[in-house]
C-alpha cells in the first residue's frame, strides 16, 4: 500500500484491482482485470498461475496488456500448505505449466507484450525491493522496461 500511495500520481490514476490478503479474486475478477489492463502487477505468494484457471487463460485474448509484472514465488508455511493441497489434484503437466518460463510463454500467446517475472523463489523483502526499483525506474525516471530489468539484474 505504501508503494501504491507513493506512486499514485504517476500514471496510476486508473489503477484498479484487489489489494491485501483478505480474499483471493474469483476467476471472473482475474479475467476482467487481465482483459481490461494496459499493465498488470501481481505481488503475492506462491505461483500466480496456480490461482488462475489455465484452460480459461489459454483461451483468453489480452492484447491491450503491454506489461505484466509478476512478483510471486514467495513461500510461507501457510502458503506452502495451501499450494501443496491444491497441487495434489493437478497433473504433473499442469503443475509444470505454472512454472515461470512456461507461464511467460502462455501469457505471451494470449497477447501480453512484455513480462517481468521472478524465476525462482524469493522473500517478501526482496520482492518489496524489486517493486520499489521497478516503480522508481519505470514511473518516476521513465526508463524503458529493458533498462529497468537491466538495473534489476545488477
Automatic annotation (TrEMBL):
Signal sequence annotation: none
PANTHER family on file: CILIA- AND FLAGELLA-ASSOCIATED PROTEIN 46 (PTHR15977)
Taxonomic source organism: Pygoscelis papua (Gentoo penguin)
Protein name (record): CFA46 protein
Record-level GO BP terms: axoneme assembly; cilium movement involved in cell motility
